[in-house]
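User: Just a sanity check before I run the rest of the batch. Below are the structure tokens for the first item. I only need the designed sequence back.
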């Protein structure tokens, strides 16, 4: 198995973030560097998953499709009990 090429990047963290990241890395039993690499990988995965999910859900929708649906909706005042529950 070949090792992936690695790059150094000077990271400037606010002291409070560094302290918290160091504490969490210690709790996980890994180095701060390993913890940050894992955190970046998790964020990339979340962003790419969300992007793919939203692209799939959008399907073939085009700008203006929703406007047509809203134009066909009745123009009535909502009933008094038609409220958002919190």
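Assistant: Here's the designed sequence for the first item:
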């Amino acid at each position: 198995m070949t090792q992936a090429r690695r790059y150094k990047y000077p990271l400037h963290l606010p002291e409070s973030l560094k302290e918290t990241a160091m504490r969490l890395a210690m709790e996980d039993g890994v180095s701060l560097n390993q913890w940050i690499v894992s955190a970046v990988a998790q964020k990339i995965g979340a962003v790419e998953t969300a992007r793919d999910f939203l692209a799939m859900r959008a399907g073939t929708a085009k700008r203006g499709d929703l406007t047509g649906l809203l134009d066909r909706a009745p123009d009535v005042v909502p009933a008094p009990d038609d409220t958002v529950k919190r």
